TrEMBL record:
Cross-referenced CDD domains: Ig (cd00096)
Ranges for region Disordered: 103-126
Name of this protein: Ig-like domain-containing protein
Domain Ig-like: 1-64, 69-126
Biological source species: Caerostris extrusa (Bark spider)
PANTHER family membership: OBSCURIN, SIDESTEP PROTEIN
UniProt cross-references to PROSITE patterns, sorted A to Z: IG_LIKE
SUPFAM superfamilies listed in its UniProt record: Immunoglobulin
Polar residues composition-biased segments: 112-126
Length: 126
C-alpha cells in the first residue's frame, strides 16, 4: 500500500488530508485554507511504498497566495525618537505587504490628499 504525505514548508499536513484507495490506485486530497503567511511557501506531495525503501517520489509547488494589502504607517527612521511639534515637518513611511504587490499608493490627511512641497519633499495639508 502506498503511503502519501503532504508537507508545507517542512511541516506535516496529514491532519488536513484524506486518502482513498481503489484497486491499486491511492488518491490523496489536501484541504488547505492558505493565509498571507503561506505565500511563497513550498507545498510537497510525497508518495512512498513502505515495502521498497527507495521508492519515494514527490512533487512540489510554490504557493502563490493572493491577499489584500496589510498596511502599516511608521515614522521615518530619522524621526523615530523625535517629538512632533506644531508646524514642523513629519516624515512617514507607508509599508504595504500584499500579493500581487501594490501599484498605487495614496495618502489621505483629514479626508484630503496632502500636497508636497517639491523642494522640501514634505506634505502639507491642502
Amino acid at each position: 500500500m502506498t503511503k502519501i504525505s503532504w508537507w508545507k514548508d517542512g511541516k506535516d499536513l496529514k491532519r488536513y488530508a484524506t486518502d482513498e484507495i481503489q484497486d491499486d490506485v491511492t488518491t490523496s486530497k489536501l484541504f488547505l485554507t492558505p493565509s498571507s503567511d503561506d505565500n511563497e511557501k513550498v507545498l510537497i506531495c510525497r508518495a512512498e511504498n513502505p515495502v521498497n525503501a527507495d521508492s519515494a517520489l514527490e512533487d512540489q509547488w510554490i504557493l502563490n497566495v493572493y491577499y489584500a494589502p496589510i498596511v502599516t504607517v511608521t515614522f521615518a527612521a530619522s524621526q523615530q525618537n523625535e517629538l512632533i511639534r506644531e508646524g514642523s515637518d513629519v516624515h512617514l513611511e507607508c509599508n504595504i505587504q500584499s500579493n500581487p504587490p501594490a501599484t498605487d499608493v495614496r495618502w489621505r490627511f483629514h479626508s484630503k490628499s496632502p500636497s508636497s512641497r517639491p523642494f522640501q519633499g514634505s506634505p502639507s495639508e491642502e
